Amino acid sequence: MSSDQRLIVALDVHSMESVRQLVGQLGDSVSYYKVGMELFYSVGSQVITYLRQQNKDIFLDLKLHDIPNTVGQGLATLTQLGATMLNVHAAGGFSMMQAAAIAVKNKAIEIQARRPKLIAVTVLTSMNENEWSGIGYNVDLSQQVIHLSKLAQKAGMDGVVASPQEAAQIQKACGSEFIVVTPGIRPNGAAINDQSRIATPAGALKNGAHHLVIGRPITAAANPRQAVKDILREMRDLA
Ligand SMILES: O=c1ccn([C@@H]2O[C@H](COP(=O)(O)O)[C@@H](O)[C@H]2O)c(=O)[nH]1
To answer: Among 3.65.10.10, 3.30.479.20, 3.20.20.70, 2.60.40.1930, what is the CATH number of 7-236?
Structure first.
């Protein structure tokens, strides 16, 4: 996979005007975008239609987490939008993830569309050990990431979202075909913001991440196109 297919830019803005401006500015340098809650709740499915018209891949990052039937029905509807990748929270459990995988597969067959990849969020990259123990877990955070990755794989997920710091351990536990998507990417010198378990683009790739999700280091940069160029150079230098 080439470096520009590995980079997913998080479109964390809340209007179509900002989307058009950013996507126009980044041009051919970015082929894969992430649409999350902020944007989808603001503008709805028109952003998916727009990005598909621009021939971009789309990770629709809505992190579904509910009872199995509700998640399955929700994902069946989302499958019709034509995103490349969808996701759920692994903490919803084995039955929920299994229902999600079945629903996506059946809907794709029904509408004769390519099945979107379905991945599960393990432990949010904003969590550190302190936050983690604060919500009542006694197990080591990174051990929990590996546990949830194995569970997700058993339930039929194509991969997981985890921090770049756990990517190598996930590969070891689940194999190299299992997709590891890593937010929490910060080029040297970039603001860390609310992220905790971070790595540089090169560090994440060295650890075996398949896709790097990067938002503010690009979208809040004075020159987003230059920021992408610098990140892709760092990624290519490693390849
Ligand atoms: O564990 C997770 C899961 C999802 N995200 C999302 O990734 C981007 C990261 O944006 P930055 O601006 O580069 O921090 C953002 O849309 C999150 O919702 C995550 O960060 N961690």
So the answer is: 3.20.20.70
